[in-house]
Amino acid sequence: MKRTITVILTSLLLLLIQASPAYDLIRISLGAKPDLLLIFLAFISFKYGSFNGAIYGFIIGLIQDVVSNSTFGSYAIIFLNIGFFLGFFNSRLFIRQITAGIFITLIGYLIKIIGLFLVISIYSDLSNVAVLIRSELFIGLPLTVILSSPMFLIFDRVSTLLFEKNKIPVDDSTKNYEE
Q: Which of the four, 7, 70, 145, 160, has the lowest number of CB atoms within 10 Å?
């Protein structure tokens, strides 16, 4: 429960940062901006597995759906899939490797682009696809991937401080108590 509340609060904080006018200057100058929620979801899925990644992806997607002007539920489904698929790398890569954050975020962003392409092709005209490819694939993807490694290290350090600080050491040895 503590982790869920922390994920929701962190998602809201990252959403506020993404929606701030200062952060929009990146979009104005470059044409796209890094997706902080996707980086956070990639970290959560990578650290806690597919099941938690899918649940937290759905929650983060719903939060993003509330503030976006796209079809309601589209980000929830896209982020659910991202969380589910990225969770498969949970035990296969070491989280503190620089390349792990880059690789995981790259795969997550490509899943997001495919999902957005499907949503745009279903609910909108195909003239928006060129804008999606130019802004998201050529500008947003590199920005997000470059930002992912330092963000992974920050999220790892903060999650260690929050969740593993009060762990009680468990003695697994068996002791026989005789009277």
A: 160
> Would you state the structure tokens that stand for residue 72, as one six-digit string?
């309601």
Residue 53, amino acid: G
**What is the DSSP secondary-structure string of 121-134?**
HHHS-THHHHHHII
* Alpha carbon 140 to its chain's center: 14
Contacts of 26 (CB under 8 A, 6+ apart): 32, 33, 34, 143
Please give the DSSP secondary-structure letter assigned to residue 95: T
Cβ neighbours of 175 (radius 10 Å) = 5
Higher pLDDT, 14 or 164: 14
**Mean model confidence pLDDT for the chain:** 83
- Tell me the three state secondary structure of residue 72: coil
pTM assigned to the model? 0.83
Cβ pair 49, 86 in contact under 8 A: no
The span from the CA of 179 to the CA of 166, in Å, is: 34
- Angle 102-108-113 (CA atoms, 0-180°, nearest 5)? 120
Cα 53 from Cα 115, distance rounded (Å): 17
Angle, alpha carbons 85-87-91 (nearest 5°): 130
